[in-house]
Design a protein that fits this description.
flat; mainly alpha; about 170 residues
Length: about 170
C-alpha cells in the first residue's frame, strides 16, 4: 500500500512540474485524493474506523478549501446608486421636457420611474424606467463618451509621410 501511495505522489509531482504547479500544492492535492480513495475503499469494506480517523485528521490539520474568502470592504462590485443631487438633476431634466410633473425632491420614487418611462417612450428608447447611458445622453446629462466605442490609434496616412521624388517610368 505504501508503494502505491508513493507512486501516486511521484506521478502527481511529475505531472505538476510539467504544468508549472509548485510541489507543495501538488503534494497537498495528492494527499487529498489519497484520503478520498482510502475513505471510499473503507466505506466499501465497511471499515468505519479508518473513515473516522481520516475525518479527525482533516479537522486537526485545519485546512480550508482552495477558495479564497473575499471581504465585502475590499471591493464593491456593480454599479453605484445615483446620489440625491444626481437624481434631482435627472428630475429637473425630466420636468424641463414635460415628463415629470412634481417638484424635484432627490428621491427615486414611483413618480420619477413613471416620468422616466414616459420620456424613454417618447424619445424611442427602451421604456424600462431605469437609468441607462442612452437615456442620460438624450436628457443632456450623460458622458460625451458613453455608448461610443473605445478610441482607435491614429492611422498613418500618406500625407504625414515625407514627400518622395516621383518615380520615372520607362517605356
Amino acid at each position: 500500500m505504501k508503494v502505491r501511495t508513493a507512486t501516486h505522489l511521484a506521478l502527481a509531482l511529475l505531472a505538476a512540474a510539467g504544468m508549472g504547479v509548485s510541489a507543495g500544492s501538488a503534494a497537498g492535492q495528492s494527499a487529498k485524493t489519497t484520503k478520498k480513495r482510502a475513505s471510499a475503499s473503507s466505506k466499501a469494506s465497511g471499515n468505519t474506523a479508518t473513515t473516522a480517523q481520516s475525518k479527525a485528521s482533516s479537522k486537526r490539520s485545519g485546512r480550508k478549501s482552495g477558495k479564497r474568502s473575499t471581504s465585502a470592504s475590499s471591493r464593491n462590485k456593480g454599479q453605484k446608486a445615483p446620489t440625491a443631487d444626481r437624481i434631482t438633476q435627472i428630475q429637473q431634466a425630466l420636468a424641463k421636457d414635460g415628463s415629470y410633473a412634481g417638484s424635484p425632491n432627490g428621491k427615486w420614487d414611483d413618480g420619477t420611474v413613471a416620468a422616466m418611462k414616459k420620456y424613454q417612450e417618447a424619445h424611442g428608447l427602451n421604456p424600462s424606467g431605469k437609468l441607462d447611458a442612452k437615456t442620460l445622453n438624450q436628457l443632456g446629462l450623460g458622458s460625451q463618451t458613453a455608448g461610443v466605442a473605445a478610441p482607435m490609434p491614429p492611422v498613418a496616412s500618406s500625407s504625414t509621410l515625407s514627400p518622395t521624388k516621383p518615380i520615372a517610368r520607362r517605356q
